[in-house]
């Protein structure tokens, strides 16, 4: 409670100092910091989805892990690469190394889960 009040009052102080000096720099710096923090929050909070095609490099239906050498995934702005995904074990039954597959993924950051996959 006290901490919040202190932060609020120091922010008010910064704002009033800035207004006093008509200096735009501190205000701009504060805005930039806030935007950055919000970008980070949005990136970790909202899962993204994408669709891709590729070749299965490794697959483990028991643990729900698959590695796919995939082409570009436009929705996520990814270039082609080989990478690992998690998946519900049931989804990977019947998928074998070397299979050409089309798949959908969902996730954030570097952690994406295959939500659907089928052989082409
Ligand atoms: Cu990738």
From TrEMBL:
Presence of the UniProt keyword Nuclease in the record: no
Name of the protein in question: Cation efflux system protein CusF
PROSITE patterns registered for this protein in UniProt: PROKAR_LIPOPROTEIN
Gene3D superfamilies with a match to the protein in the record: Copper binding periplasmic protein CusF
Highest taxon of source: Bacteria
Gene: cusF
Keywords: Signal
Signal peptide positions on this chain: 1-18
InterPro entries in the record: CusF_Ec, CusF_sf
Ribosomal protein recorded as keyword: no
